[in-house]
Design a protein that fits this description.
Blueprint: E1 2-5, H1 13-23, E2 26-30, E3 33-38, H2 69-73
Parallel strand pairs: 1-2
Antiparallel strand pairs: 2-3
């Protein structure tokens, strides 16, 4: 991450943004003290593909059936 001192040579906003993207972030300092951090936004994520691991898991036929009373009442 790059550090830019604001009092020595104030950079343009465009220069700060370019440095932030190139260096994965920029810390702006004033008299050696950090005052701000500029970081790039993450890129757009790729659209997910639905059947990525087809057959890796299965849902039983009775998945949405009510659970028995023994489950709720704690009876063995």
């Amino acid at each position: 991450m790059k550090t830019i001192e604001l009092l020595i040579q104030p950079p343009s906003l465009e220069a700060v943004l370019e440095a932030a993207v190139k260096e994965a972030g920029v810390v702006l300092t004033k008299s050696g003290e950090p005052v701000a951090q500029v970081i790039p936004l993450p890129g757009k994520s790729k659209q997910r593909v639905a059947p990525l691991h087809a057959g890796a898991w299965a849902v039983s036929e009775d998945f949405d059936e009510p659970l028995p009373d023994e489950f709720w009442l704690g009876k063995p």
